[in-house]
């Protein structure tokens, strides 16, 4: 898990070129842009953010609210690092999407485990 998170952190912060400090402080701004401009690339980015941290919780039994909190906390560290090191866009949307992705992944995994245990 540590190696996976290291790769995620490196690919979202340190492999990017240094630019100017960028931030978007309006929550869910990306969904408005997706609907308004039919931006498929932004849609793809949002959906990928929803599954970004999914491998972290797949092998563990955790409650959905802990998975959500974990996704938000990890994502917040990435977003703050992007802001501080000027390597990407700080945005609330990524934290929301990563938290939701962890939460949904946790819920789906729990249901699959229950289903598999019933088959035994």
Q: What topology does this entry show?
A:
Elements: H1 2-14, E1 22-24, H2 29-37, H3 40-51, H4 54-57, H5 64-84, E2 89-91, H6 92-119
Parallel strand pairs: 1-2
Helix pairs in contact: 2-3, 3-6, 5-6
Q: What do you see in this structure?
A:
With 120 residues, the chain is mainly α. It has one domain. It has helices at residues 2-14, 29-37, 40-51, 54-57, 64-84, 92-119, and strands spanning 22-24, 89-91. Helix 2 (29-37) packs antiparallel against helix 3 and helix 3 packs across helix 6 (92-119). The two termini are 29 Å apart. The model has no long low-confidence stretch (mean pLDDT 90). Residues 11-109 form the VanZ-like domain. InterPro entries: VanZ-like (IPR006976). This is VanZ family protein.
Can you give the helix content as a percent range?
over 70%
Strand portion:
5-15%
Overall spatial form = globular
Series of H and E elements: HEHHHHEH
Q: Kindly state the mean pLDDT as a whole number?
A: 90
Give the helix/strand class: mainly alpha
Low-confidence stretches: none
Largest sheet: 2 strands, parallel
Q: Give the total of domains.
A: 1
- Cα-to-Cα separation, first versus last residue: 29 Å
Number of strands: 2
Radius of gyration: 16 Å
* Strands ordered across the widest β-sheet: 1-2
Q: What is the helix tally?
A: 6
Pfam families: VanZ
Protein name: VanZ family protein
InterPro entries: VanZ-like
Domain VanZ-like: 11-109
């Amino acid at each position: 898990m540590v190696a996976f998170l290291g790769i995620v952190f490196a690919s979202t912060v340190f492999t990017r070129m240094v630019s100017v400090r960028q931030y978007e402080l309006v929550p869910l701004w990306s969904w408005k842009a997706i609907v308004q401009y039919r931006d498929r690339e932004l849609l793809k980015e949002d959906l990928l953010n929803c599954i970004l941290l999914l491998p972290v919780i797949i092998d563990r039994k955790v409650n959905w609210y802990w998975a959500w909190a974990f996704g938000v906390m990890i994502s917040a560290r990435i977003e703050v690092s992007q802001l501080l090191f000027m390597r990407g866009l700080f945005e609330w949307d990524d934290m929301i999407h990563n938290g939701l992705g962890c939460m949904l992944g946790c819920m789906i995994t729990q249901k699959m485990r229950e289903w598999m245990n019933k088959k035994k």
